[in-house]
Specification:
The chain has helices at 30-39, 115-128, 142-152, 187-192, 205-213, 231-235, 242-245, 265-274, 291-294, 296-307; strands spanning 44-50, 53-60, 69-73, 95-99, 134-139, 157-163, 183-184, 216-218, 224-226, 252-257, 282-284. It is of the alpha/beta class and 316 residues long. It has a single domain (30-178, 232-307), classed as 3-Layer(aba) Sandwich (Rossmann fold). It has an eight-stranded mixed sheet with strand order 1-2-4-3-5-6-10-11, sandwiched between helices. Helix 3 (142-152) links the parallel strand 5 and strand 6 (157-163). Helix 2 (115-128) crosses helix 3. The longest helix is centred in the middle third of the chain and has 14 residues, at 115-128. The radius of gyration is 18 Å and the shape is globular. Residues 1-23 have low confidence and may be disordered.
Amino acid sequence: MIASEVSVARVEEGHENAGLAVPALGAGTPLSRWLAAGWRCDAEVRAVEVEGATVRYRGWGLSEAGKPGLVFVHGFLAHARWWDHIAPHFADRYRVIAPDFTGMGDSDRRAAYSRRQYARELVAALRDAGMQDAILVAHSFGTVSALVAASIDPERVRRVIVIDAHVFRAEDEGNVPMQPEKSYPSFDAARARYRLAPPGAWPDPEIEDYIARHSIRRMADGRWGWKFDPETFRSVHRERLRNELKGLPLAVDFIHAGNSEVVDAASLAAFRLHMPACGTPVTVPLSHHHVMIEQPVGLVAALNGLLAQPHQGEAR
């Protein structure tokens, strides 16, 4: 999830941000070289029409038809490129995609949004990519839609791995303030306003910069703004899906950020109570909510550990 002063696009040939300089990546440290190796893996960009809007998704290893599917689902006001340094590390074993929800990233905007609709977008992307026997890896806000997608197409989705999501909140989901559309005179001015929410304490500066620079779009009037549609604040939080999800016998795993500001012990216990087939949670130490930004190697290791084993959860 990112704050109102965040989230918008990529710099690439033919894109509206083309020509903007991106700092050199992969400097000297092992982590920098590891990140750069992931970012150098070219993604195939595809699009599918879903209920009148174009949903775009990024893919790795899609030409290898015999492999199972792995889908990375982003959080609120985020986008598919949050996964660019994570997803390529699984393309040797999986056909991998990362979609943009409508109203976020490079997908179209709509008049209104809903998490059920986002679930249908995930299923449409899966079908368009020809995926069967897929696993969804969902961060934060994306979790509810991933769980709904698994429930509406169980033949195509066999497992969901949740990353630090507070699904069964006690508070009203509707109390999210509307945000105005913001714009800035230059790309650099927009970049300077990018903020993570929650901010965490140890975001890797290269990852944060990469995500920020791929979160900015040029607007019709020549100014610069965020890719996300402010309407998402108004419409997407109106649903009450908690009770519909309780008790679903879905094969689910949970990766918890050890220093999460979002998921505490009670939240994690509630998730395990209401998801009866949830496996034993895995904790990534020294990480706040945005695990892929603070502990990307730890996250890849946690995912590899879960994916290497059959799902362990049994209804309790």
